[in-house]
Amino acid sequence: MVRILVTGSNGFLGHRLVASLRLRTDVELIATSLGPDRRSDTEGYLYVPMDVTSEQAVQEVCSRYRPDAIIHTAAITQVDQAEQQPAYCRCLNVGAVAHLVGACARYGIHLLQLSTDFVFDGLSGPYAESDPVSPISVYGWSKAAAEKLLSDSEISWAVVRTILVYGQEVPGGRSNIVQWATKVLQSGNPVQVVNDQYRMPTFVEYLAQACIEIALRKERGIFHISGEEEVSIFELVGHVAQHLGLSMEMVQSVNSSDLAGAELRPPRTGFILGKAKSRIHYEPVSLETGLTKVLGPAIQ
Ligand SMILES: NC(=O)c1ccc[n+]([C@@H]2O[C@H](COP(=O)([O-])OP(=O)(O)OC[C@H]3O[C@@H](n4cnc5c(N)ncnc54)[C@H](OP(=O)(O)O)[C@@H]3O)[C@@H](O)[C@H]2O)c1
Predict the structure, then answer these.
(1) What fold characterizes domain 177-197+230-269+286-295?
(2) 187-215 residue pLDDT tens
(3) pLDDT by residue (tens digit) across 104-124?
């Protein structure tokens, strides 16, 4: 039996991790987040509130439950919020990781840290794990700083970097690109979407599975986990429209320079997935299959 603690269990990825882990007979799951547990099906795991920015709370929970591995998802994840609240971003995205590294060192826990394609500047994607980081935003900087805390430590650690995650919406949680595109297209309201930011969108269920695999095996080092198809955000919205049989008439294709905050977003990221494929047999789902899982069968 392996005991796994998930942080940010109310979040988009955290919710999916709990959904999978609570059903496993070989895992004891401790789910933690900032607020009260927002799941309706609360069987198969223990929920403990834990503010990861409190060193004392992190020490107490880790000392009490002694997990074998922690999957750390809790973070400020919004690029604009991070720019507006850099001190809070540093506290949550970097300070909390320092608390977790301290507790993991003390109790011999394996730490899996979630990170992002935004650690790169997007000028030479797709990227391999060994490429040097070059963040261009407070968010990207904070995630790169958190990665360095792990790599400079003596603990057993893994970093999972991922890209533009999509999937079913979580109750009380934030939206994601596919759900956002669906709502915009269905509303018929005009919207501007960038045509020059390229990503490899990642299906949340496959990301969660990869994190679980890495945590259970106590794999070490950096892993790139994403989809394999490179699309611009405009093209992605087009895929959703085509899947749902909706019109793109009201969707205006624009350059990043036409919108505020372009300088904070890397133009072309994308990952080389060879390491994840060979080490944990990760096989990304195609975008079309991912959309079918989220939105149902394509409307012909
Ligand atoms: N989503 C993406 O497209 C994407 C892309 C690249 C990388 N990532 C990375 O993947 C990870 C998960 O992202 P996500 O989209 O699942 O994030 P999310 O939906 O924004 O969830 C983050 C969760 O963190 C929790 N949290 C906030 N402050 C906390 C605190 N002080 N202590 C404990 N928990 C706290 C919140 O819990 P409450 O709800 O309880 O307040 C929230 O549910 C993040 O590290 C992110 O950087 C995400």
Answers:
(1) UDP-galactose 4-epimerase; domain 1 (3.90.25)
(2) 999 999 999 999 999 999 999 999 999 99
(3) 999 999 999 999 999 999 999
In angstroms, the CA 109 to CA 20 distance is 21
Alpha-carbon separation of residue 274 from 30, 127, 224, 228, 238 (angstroms): 31, 11, 9, 11, 28
pTM beyond cutoff 0.85: yes
Distance 77 CA to ligand 1 centre (A): 6
198-199 and 231-232 beta bridge pairing: antiparallel
Pocket-forming residues, ligand 1, beta carbon under 6 Å:
7-8, 10-14, 33-35, 51-53, 73-75, 77, 92, 114, 116, 162, 164-165, 173-174
Average pLDDT over residues 21-36: 97
Q: Looking at residues 126-153, what average pLDDT do you find?
A: 98
171 pLDDT more than 90: no
Q: What residue segments make up the domains of the chain, in order of their start? A: 2-167+201-229+270-280, 177-197+230-269+286-295
Report the length, in residues, of the chain: 300
Residue whose C-alpha is closest to residue 262's, from 163, 196, 184? 196
* End-to-end C-alpha distance for the chain, whole angstroms: 47
Instruction: Find the 73 Cα to ligand 1 centroid distance in Å.
Output: 5
